[in-house]
């Protein structure tokens, strides 16, 4: 692959596909060395020996960190800010800093992500990820300067690209930035899903149905109110997730190894965060206690807990959708979900609620990931938590899956839901739950007796009330209107209560 070596601040680069096509001779290698010895590295690889060792050591998930582009961009942003800060305070040659800056910008713009090859799960507290970034950035910068990959005498991955830094402050800071970036995607999809449910609440505002508590018939409501409830709970989760941004704003950049700032100029922490905010558009701040911040993972736990809350509530909505659409003949059958695929290899015509089902499973995964984050945070020891790689993977995967789940639920399910209005009308008419609306007028005892009669005979409640001379037809019709039954129109007065005689009871009021 060839990179422009002109002095333009926006060098011409090739995309990932072009880069892979350029790798025509995988047998060619270059020799790189570290404190453990030497290794042969593919000549066309932008990563180096530290990355190569990680590939040997951690063949666990077969998922490289590049599956999370926001994490790659976040790391490049931190390295870019470090280069600018180091140049500003005079601890890095401006020409070197400019090369590192330009290389980072190329990565931020979307190129070379395929070079971030270390696994998402790794030992070493994220050192392999930091090394991978140092090597890729350095080799891109070397080519920008007209040098070959691996010619580290001109620009070094650790002495220059990693100047004033440690994995222990670069990696957690990068995770927080990546989470902030990814969260925006989730918030966008969650907001669209909320709006979709809100639109359905308007569409179904006139559709009366029977509400249920403990899976038993309760009192009437509208289908629109049910979907409005969905929209409200999604909006609450939108707000709670948005609030978690403050958990991600405090970073320990400048702490270096354990929080003492060793090897970093005292001016570095302020400068690097200032540059990082300019690069990312975020409002990051330096933690007041860098030692505490370097060892503590409490912010990740709180963020994960909020994400779990949202997943659980989204799953509950999907449970409701599966119940409401159950049948279509022998279940509730109140709503119709869009048919997305044949539901059975043996039962012709069967269609399953596959979209709510897949969202349920995403929620289950998020719950499991939250437990992983909790255990990883607990396992931290002394001045560092070594388990941030699994924290990063768990949270980033949960965010991505949640966002995609919200999207498929909206596009492939909510937007296409229809109501079985005729069935709902029949169910409301036959429901004894409607008599609850009449208790202010006929009393609980009379209402209970009529409800029992309606259940035994299957007769219409309104007819029984009128026949018992407890209310006129007009009065019953008024009180059982959809607006009254759903609570949209409040009851402002009541007629005098007339107790319905209970069969077998002594009618003598003196006894």
From TrEMBL:
<dbReference type="InterPro" id="IPR018951">
    <property type="entry name" value="Fumarase_C_C"/>
</dbReference>
<dbReference type="GO" id="GO:0005829">
    <property type="term" value="C:cytosol"/>
</dbReference>
<feature type="compositionally biased region" description="Low complexity">
    <location>
        <begin position="1"/>
        <end position="13"/>
    </location>
</feature>
<dbReference type="Pfam" id="PF00206">
    <property type="entry name" value="Lyase_1"/>
</dbReference>
<dbReference type="InterPro" id="IPR008948">
    <property type="entry name" value="L-Aspartase-like"/>
</dbReference>
<dbReference type="InterPro" id="IPR020557">
    <property type="entry name" value="Fumarate_lyase_CS"/>
</dbReference>
<feature type="compositionally biased region" description="Basic and acidic residues">
    <location>
        <begin position="21"/>
        <end position="33"/>
    </location>
</feature>
<dbReference type="GO" id="GO:0006531">
    <property type="term" value="P:aspartate metabolic process"/>
</dbReference>
<dbReference type="InterPro" id="IPR000362">
    <property type="entry name" value="Fumarate_lyase_fam"/>
</dbReference>
<dbReference type="InterPro" id="IPR051546">
    <property type="entry name" value="Aspartate_Ammonia-Lyase"/>
</dbReference>
<dbReference type="Pfam" id="PF10415">
    <property type="entry name" value="FumaraseC_C"/>
</dbReference>
<feature type="domain" description="Fumarase C C-terminal">
    <location>
        <begin position="435"/>
        <end position="485"/>
    </location>
</feature>
<dbReference type="GO" id="GO:0006099">
    <property type="term" value="P:tricarboxylic acid cycle"/>
</dbReference>
<feature type="region of interest" description="Disordered">
    <location>
        <begin position="1"/>
        <end position="37"/>
    </location>
</feature>
<dbReference type="GO" id="GO:0008797">
    <property type="term" value="F:aspartate ammonia-lyase activity"/>
</dbReference>
<dbReference type="InterPro" id="IPR022761">
    <property type="entry name" value="Fumarate_lyase_N"/>
</dbReference>
<keyword id="KW-0456">Lyase</keyword>
<feature type="domain" description="Fumarate lyase N-terminal">
    <location>
        <begin position="37"/>
        <end position="368"/>
    </location>
</feature>
<dbReference type="InterPro" id="IPR024083">
    <property type="entry name" value="Fumarase/histidase_N"/>
</dbReference>
<protein>
    <submittedName>
        <fullName>Aspartate ammonia-lyase</fullName>
    </submittedName>
</protein>
């Amino acid at each position: 692959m060839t990179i422009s070596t002109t002095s333009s601040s926006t060098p011409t680069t090739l995309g990932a596909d072009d880069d892979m096509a350029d790798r025509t001779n995988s047998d060619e290698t270059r020799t790189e060395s570290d404190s453990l010895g030497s290794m042969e590295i593919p000549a066309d690889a932008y990563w180096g020996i530290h990355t190569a060792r990680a590939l040997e050591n951690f063949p666990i998930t077969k998922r490289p960190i590049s599956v999370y582009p926001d994490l790659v961009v976040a790391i490049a942003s931190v390295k870019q800010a470090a280069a600018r800060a180091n140049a500003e305070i005079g601890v890095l040659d401006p020409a070197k800093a400019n090369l590192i800056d330009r290389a980072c910008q190329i990565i931020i713009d979307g190129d070379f992500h395929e070079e971030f090859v270390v696994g998402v799960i790794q030992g070493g507290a994220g050192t392999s990820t930091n090394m991978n970034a140092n090597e890729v950035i350095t080799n891109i910068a070397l080519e920008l300067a007209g040098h070959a990959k691996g010619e580290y005498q001109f620009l070094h991955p650790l002495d220059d690209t990693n100047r004033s830094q440690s994995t222990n402050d670069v990696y957690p800071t990068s995770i927080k930035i990546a989470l902030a970036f990814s969260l925006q995607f989730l918030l966008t999809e969650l907001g669209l899903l909320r709006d979709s449910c809100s639109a359905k609440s308007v569409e179904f505002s006139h559709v009366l149905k029977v509400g249920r508590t403990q899976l038993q018939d309760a009192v009437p409501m509208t289908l629109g109110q049910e979907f409005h409830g969905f929209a409200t709970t999604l909006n609450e989760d939108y707000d709670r997730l948005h609030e978690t941004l403050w958990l991600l704003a405090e970073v320990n950049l400048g702490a270096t190894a354990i929080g003492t700032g060793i090897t970093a100029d005292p001016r570095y922490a302020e400068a690097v965060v200032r540059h990082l905010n300019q690069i990312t558009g975020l409002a990051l701040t330096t933690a007041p206690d860098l030692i505490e911040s370097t060892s503590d993972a409490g912010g990740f736990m709180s963020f994960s807990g909020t994400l779990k809350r949202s997943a659980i509530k989204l799953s509950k909505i999907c449970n409701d959708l599966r119940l409401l659409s159950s049948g279509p003949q022998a279940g509730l059958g109140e709503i119709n979900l869009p048919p997305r695929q044949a539901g059975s290899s043996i039962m012709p015509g069967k269609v399953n609620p596959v979209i709510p089902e897949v969202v349920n499973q995403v929620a289950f995964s998020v719950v499991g990931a939250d437990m992983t984050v909790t255990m990883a945070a607990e396992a931290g020891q002394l001045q560092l938590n070594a388990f941030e790689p699994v924290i990063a993977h768990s949270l980033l995967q949960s965010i991505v899956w949640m966002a995609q789940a919200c999207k498929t639920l909206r596009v492939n399910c909510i937007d296409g839901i229809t109501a079985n209005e005729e069935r709902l009308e029949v169910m409301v008419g036959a429901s004894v739950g409607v008599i609850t609306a009449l208790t202010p007028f006929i009393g609980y005892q009379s209402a209970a007796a009529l409800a029992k009669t309606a259940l035994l005979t299957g007769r219409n409640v309104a007819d029984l009330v009128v026949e018992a001379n407890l209310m006129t037809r007009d009065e019953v019709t008024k009180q059982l209107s959809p607006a009254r039954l759903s609570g949209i129109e409040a009851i402002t007065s009541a007629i005098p209560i007339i107790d319905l005689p209970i069969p077998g009871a002594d009618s003598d009021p003196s006894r």
